[in-house]
Please model this.
Amino acid sequence: MNGSGRDRRPEVGPTVEEDGPSRRRGGVISRAPRWVDDRLGMSKFAESALDKVFPDHWSFMFGELAFYAFLLLLGTGVYLTFFFAPSERAVVYHGTYVPLRGVQMSEAYKSVIEISFKVKAGMVMRQMHHWAALIFLGAIVVHLCRVFFTGAFRRPREINWVIGVSLLVLGIVNGFAGYSLPDDLLSGTGLRIANAIILSIPFLGPWLGSLLFGGEFPAASILSRLYIIHVLLVPAAIAALLTAHLAILWRQKHTDFPGRDKSEDTITGSRMWPTYGMKSTGLLFAVSAFTALLGGLAQINPIWLYGPYKPAAVSAGSQPDWYMGWLDGALRMFPNVEIRVFHVTISNLFFPAVVLPGITFTMLAVWPWLEARLTHDHEPHNLLDRPRDRPVRSALGSATLAFYSILLLGSATDILATTFHLSFNTIIRMLQVAIFTVPVIVFLVVRRICRDLSAGRVRPIRQPGSAVIGRDAEGRMVVEHVDEPDSLADDDNVGADPVRPNKDIRIRTGGD
Amino acid sequence: MSGTQGRSDEARAERRVAICLGLSIVAALGLTVVYMLGGQPQAEGGLLFLALGFLALGLILWGKELLPNAPVTASRTPHESSTGAREGVGEAFARGGDRMFRRTFLVKMAALAGGSLGLAAIFPIASLGPSPGHALKRTSWARGRRLVQLDGTPVRPSDLGVDNILTVFPEGTGDDPQTQADSQVVLINIGSARQVVRKGRATWSVDGLVAYSKICTHAGCPVGLYKADGNTRPSHELLCPCHQSTFDVLDGCRPVFGPAARSLPQLPLALSPDGYLVAQSDFTEPVGPSFWNRT
Model:
């Protein structure tokens, strides 16, 4: 192992101090750690925690972003629970929002109207909560892409990859549960579709639907059940998994991009205390700031315009939140076939709404093992790949993103049709063709680009060469020794160094 | 870089951080003023953005310009434990386990006890919802039940002009959301347009009025949009706004576009002696989205 010990500060032995006044002399800052250590003996851990090194690359920020968005969700969400009433009981509205006066609605819908118009600061909190959810899931997806394209999921980090995929699933589930709570026309329609999807599961569907909803749709207990799922069950699971995610990250340390003086055995960056901690806290406030800006100025989910849920009413232009959009698009694009074998019907919904997400998240979860099997690379890795050096992986990832982007586009067919004055028919057919062709094209193009970049002249060189220049007695500079650049990168470090091949020139002055 | 240069750089950086933190304080105070004056969402959001944003900027500048930023390299410790420790775990497990697993009968009984408890736990879960039974296959329509509007008014054939539609419910079910959800029907006056009448359905319409389940056979959204003209040929179509499934009203509400795979079930209509529209019976097939044992 090389480079070891550079982060080890000289061990400071326990300072022995006499009892008495000297013990009280230090400020709180010095007394508090001692108080804790007397009881828990955590000084060694605390020291390593303060000294912990985090890489500085910008792409490592997205996981933190997701974490901070989750904290925001907790904060704003707890505030909302003080005002929200998860009840289907029918009431009549007599509040400040004139267009809805005298309208019969559920207590849940009424409480969200009150949060929006009556509770001071309620509107900002509610909109911040919704925006933070969109940011949370967005950050998770970008974080997942970063981890995928750089190969950070490889051994020994497979467990954290699987936890991350679980967090994504939980995030999507909780997002859906959350925007279903206000019991407005849009969310009620979403729940109706969710119920239909559950019904579509062969053999179990009717039972599962009844157990989850408490009867036939729209059974009277769905809101209170969604509520406890949304505010307790799923957030607790997310918090637990997030803790494990961070603890494992702490234990394994971050991955690091290859580069000068980088190695599998070292990690380079800033220390937790104070530089990294300061910048990361800055990021927390920056995320909060932008969420506040969106929450204050950008209207989101204006349920007072949709009206309360009525089973026989519906509005055109119904789109789910973006992270559900790919599923909605899949529902729209799937051909209208229904399988009937003997007396068993397999609903058309089952394939795009149950099988597709099942395959999606299973493939994601097992990817580290799948890739290791395909590449026969079972070695542990701390240094990351540059995406260009793994053309097939990068191409596969891009093609997958293209596939889901087209599905997402599919959820907007009605918007596209009215915007571009095309018929639904044309748009659906175009997307149905695109879903099979575009990912293939993306795969071929990205693989080509990666191969060219990787093989081309822009290929960086791992270790720059160096020259030793000496100066003779007359003061002339002479080259004494040249180390050729190490351009033959081995397998682990293909094109590893993003540093330009500038020569490292050391000047030795002669004469002493 | 000389020493004095560095010091004045630091002083400038410190001033910048102080200005950011100062602006954050001002914005936060502004926020309290806005709140006390009665609150205003846009102002609250904007000021919160400024308060948090300047705080963020201040801290990031502080971190970038005033704190040690030279890259630090630390060593990684290997993830795996030493061979000795690994073997130690195996030995410790075996030491205790051998004594325990020797009693194979007890081990089996313990497994059985766990399994039985698991089985018993299913029953409280079953309380979460009634057995689906036939609920999914039936609606509240029945022989002679009048068609009423949302407000309970019964419908006469003359209430609906040609090419108009009306959402109707079975009479006497009130505001029950479950009934509204599975028994909603769209009543359409197709006038004299010729329709393809399916076998056995010749007597299901009254004076050009036909009634179909309003629940999409795809994912259950109300099929709420009706188009009674057409650019190229006359068409009478119901469209589901959720996933754009389209049903041809003149052809038994057969799906002609979109993901829906089945026709909308038709409600057989009749006229009561006092001239109101009534149902001849319940639907003859389950309404709404498919489930495995619907047939």
Summary: The CA atoms of residues 217 and 262 of chain B lie 6 Å apart. Chain B has a mean pLDDT of 91. The helical segments of chain B are 3-36, 41-66, 83-101, 104-126, 177-183. Residues 3-36 of chain B form the longest helix (34 residues).
